[in-house]
Amino acid sequence: MRSGVAEFNFSVGQEVITSFNKPEIHVLDGNLVDHDQLLTFQKYEIFQSKYDSEILKIHLQCAKLQFDMKVCYQVYPDIAGCVKWLEFSNYGRKDLRLNRMFFEVLNTCPGEFADSDFFKKQGIDRVTPFHNASGDDDIIQLHNDKLNEGMLLGNTAPGPLRYFMLYPCWGAGISIGYNMSGADFNKYISPGESFSTDKALSYVYAGDKDCPKTLNGFREMVRRQLPLCPDNGSVMYCTWLPFLKNINEELLLDLAERAAALGFGWFVVDDGWFTDNNWEVDADKFPNGLEPISEKVRSLGMKFGLWLNIGNDYGKIGSRPEDNALDFNGEPKPFGFGRKLTSRCMASNHRDVMSAKLLELAEKYDVDYYKLDFSNTCSPYGMMAYGCHSTEHAHHRNYSDSILEQYGSMMQLRNEVKDKFPDLVIDFSFETFGTEFPSIGALQFSELHHSSNMNTLKPEILRADRIRRTIYEYSRVLPDERILGSLICLQNENDLEHLLTPCAGTPLVAGDLRKITPENADVIGKLSACLNEIIEYGPMVDKVLLKGNGFDGYARFNKLGNGLVAVFGKTDGFTLNIPGLPEGKYELVNIISEESLAACSADELSNGIELKSSINGVLPLALKKL
Length: 626
Prior knowledge:
Number of strands: 36
Shape: globular
CATH class of the largest domain: Alpha Beta
CATH architecture of the largest domain: Alpha-Beta Barrel
Largest sheet: 10 strands, antiparallel
Mean pLDDT: 93
Strand content: 25-35%
Radius of gyration: 25 Å
Low-confidence stretches: none
CATH superfamily of the largest domain: Aldolase class I
Distance between the termini: 47 Å
């Protein structure tokens, strides 16, 4: 670790602001870097917060530019890490424009930089030590094989605003902050207003790079930054596939009966329920409105979910042109190719229109879950320019601050709905969020996050094993119970594998349930019942990936030790290793046959036990604490 290095820096307009740092010759251009010290110390405070954590806030003042700031650190007694962010208050008479910001700078690593390997994409992809990462990259990992120790670093900034810069030879060796290029960060703070940055998460560990204890420790650190979720694991059924918009009252009432009989916990009505007349219910499909669907779903013991687009003018095409997102030519941003839809700017009055609509629908239909869809800020498909170039929208000034304020408006919309309906689960889909890979930032906006449309409707295009591999990557260190990893289809072919695959996260399924045979329905029902029993005692928060000769799988379990084990492949026997379980005795039970396969201790499971069970496809096991 190098001393004398600034631990944050940013600009206010053209004025560079930095914490204390020792002047040095920069290797990039050979010039001396010596910033004026414009901040003066005022005081500090320490107080208790959630999860028995402590927060230290160091109060600083910049008299020249008339703003106060706080450097904030949060530590937990049971986690080897720190959460850091900055807070600003403008006490002057002029606007402040924050830009070019790193809210965390670390010139440190496990051992020597020369001995450390660098990984992006949540620790999956190795990169050079000289690297910048933005957009989809919210977690990087450094690991020293010589010392067998390392660190994980997270950035909670949303979407393309995320930014890491890794240049160990510079004073700012590892910098965590906001993008400074295509998705440029700018924040205007008016007199009397305040602003808090996103957060940097730093976590250190000793042990193997992929050790489950390490990954679960950082997973818990991430989880503590997220909103609480009222349900963490029961199966969610969505009507989108294979029906698309071809839905009606008779079909959905039938599907709801079948979903409840299979033990599912959520029933979501996807696109196809409204017309283009201000999102009015399609009377031809639903002559009695959506009330019979909502009432039926809830009478069957499930939660009622509803899809709504918030990113474009679908549902009211051509209306409110003043709310359209504008491209750099000042023209409305089209939504995709060959469509007549126009992207809306969420940092316009569109935010208030959508908030009112969501509140209206929630009141009318007792909505338990919203799937909010369609891009406006940017596109996960790379088909839309970032931000909005309007200078007349209510909640941003110009292009420079549009991306930040569009995400800020999404959060404002969320808060307005949650203030009135605190138990309603909000899900900004991966398309609305605009990034392909799930992230800490996305999970901070959504209790549950629809992170992919991967499905098995056409197995010649995509099979469950490929989906499963992707979900493993999606949730390597992110909380599994928040990630709706695929829209996998249940309609009789390989249904057990198809249900167990999304159970690597929170299971989201689709399919024509009318095609499921009674035999398969019984299998699905047993697995759903097992999941529902487990989550009654708390969500499955820890995970161990299982790998071996001819098989893959996972073990997920809650704080009590109860959980689900799924093994996929073909083998006559295998060694099952599940480290990290609470101390005590456990039983492994085949969920389908209800046969007890083993009884052993947590230590024995950690060291590995031999199971003689033959697998030809999939083996689902309940992990029961005795």
